[in-house]
Amino acid sequence: MATQAHLIWDDGFTRYNFGAGHPMSPVRLDLTARLCRDFGLFDGPQVEVLAPEVASDEALARVHDEAFIAAVRAASVDPGAADPAFGLGTDDDPAFAGMHEISARIAEGTRLVAQSVWTGAASHGVNFTGGLHHAMPDRASGFCIYNDAALAISWLLENGAERVTYVDVDAHHGDGVERMFWNDPRVLTISMHETGTVLFPGTGFPRDLGGPDAEGSAINLALPPGTGDGAWLRGFHAVVPALIRAFDPQVLITQHGADSHYTDPLAHLSISVDAQRIVAQTLHDLSHEVCGGRWVALGGGGYEVVGVVPRSWTHVVATAAHRDIDVEAAVPQRWLDDVSERIGVQAPEKMGDGTSERGRIWWRSWDSGFDPENAADRAIMATREASFSLHGLDHWFD
């Protein structure tokens, strides 16, 4: 019998550390793991916590150029020798000792849980240390060294998967994963993000649809700054479920960057933890509906590292473990005390932001009609008009 969920963690993952003052502080990983433990999510016969080894260079070369891997290795030994031509030693991706080993462990963790769900060893897999979606074949980008999601997808394709869907709800466009499978009709990438007209990496527009052999394999919903829970959920439900069902994947891989939150310092969306939880639960349900529950969930961005990321990703882990946590549930006092003592911050005392009622948020179904005066509706319509017909869907009604 399959284990309910395989989870990737050990304390060594906090070595993915770009240094003091960098937005991607490893404390967000530590606090997420501690919160999961305090809710008992790492325990029980239906959950297994895995600590992966370092991915081999041969494995990484499935998605990354050998010259880039060599450059990461060199910078890992001598950070002062990092080559900016490979995106290393920059403000976004400072080199640090051991960078290759920890980045390759993160990548191997996502590949490992993808293997677990594909072989039936586990129903679901979670690697909240992963979701490093900006890494390109030939360079680091946007706080991301190796592209763990792309490595997992590549492994699945090499081991018999014929259709894989990747859904990315990070505030930033999932450009690296999209790029790596741009012309591969076996992979559907869907990214719902803040428009690239105002936010890094400046890509991911509705007419970006994939390569000549895979038109419609890339889907982009680029939302305006300030989009709140109702419009975000409306956009998600108007685009993502219909396309997943039409593509009929055998495995669903999802990236849950928490930087869509209204307090995140690097983006301009206005989403609550409550809404992030709803999207995670909906994607989980779609995995059971469409692909036999074969679901891999990843972390990603998120720079409100105490008040948002740990709660958001603990909800993802709880969903994968089939042990949902109510948004009204109290955050364990032991975790709050630890945060206060070690970091000097008063963290939120509940697992939601108070924006939902019994875990539900009102959002207007696309069936209610298109409002051309609404910027979010215009963004949703642009995505549906560009892509739905390529999947046999009607952009007005499906």
Automatic annotation (TrEMBL):
<dbReference type="GO" id="GO:0045150">
    <property type="term" value="P:acetoin catabolic process"/>
</dbReference>
<keyword id="KW-0006">Acetoin catabolism</keyword>
<dbReference type="InterPro" id="IPR003085">
    <property type="entry name" value="AcuC"/>
</dbReference>
<dbReference type="GO" id="GO:0004407">
    <property type="term" value="F:histone deacetylase activity"/>
</dbReference>
<dbReference type="InterPro" id="IPR023801">
    <property type="entry name" value="His_deacetylse_dom"/>
</dbReference>
<dbReference type="InterPro" id="IPR023696">
    <property type="entry name" value="Ureohydrolase_dom_sf"/>
</dbReference>
<dbReference type="InterPro" id="IPR037138">
    <property type="entry name" value="His_deacetylse_dom_sf"/>
</dbReference>
<dbReference type="Pfam" id="PF00850">
    <property type="entry name" value="Hist_deacetyl"/>
</dbReference>
<protein>
    <recommendedName>
        <fullName>Acetoin utilization protein AcuC</fullName>
    </recommendedName>
</protein>
<dbReference type="GO" id="GO:0040029">
    <property type="term" value="P:epigenetic regulation of gene expression"/>
</dbReference>
<comment type="similarity">
    <text>Belongs to the histone deacetylase family.</text>
</comment>
<feature type="domain" description="Histone deacetylase">
    <location>
        <begin position="22"/>
        <end position="319"/>
    </location>
</feature>
<comment type="pathway">
    <text>Ketone degradation; acetoin degradation.</text>
</comment>
<dbReference type="InterPro" id="IPR000286">
    <property type="entry name" value="HDACs"/>
</dbReference>
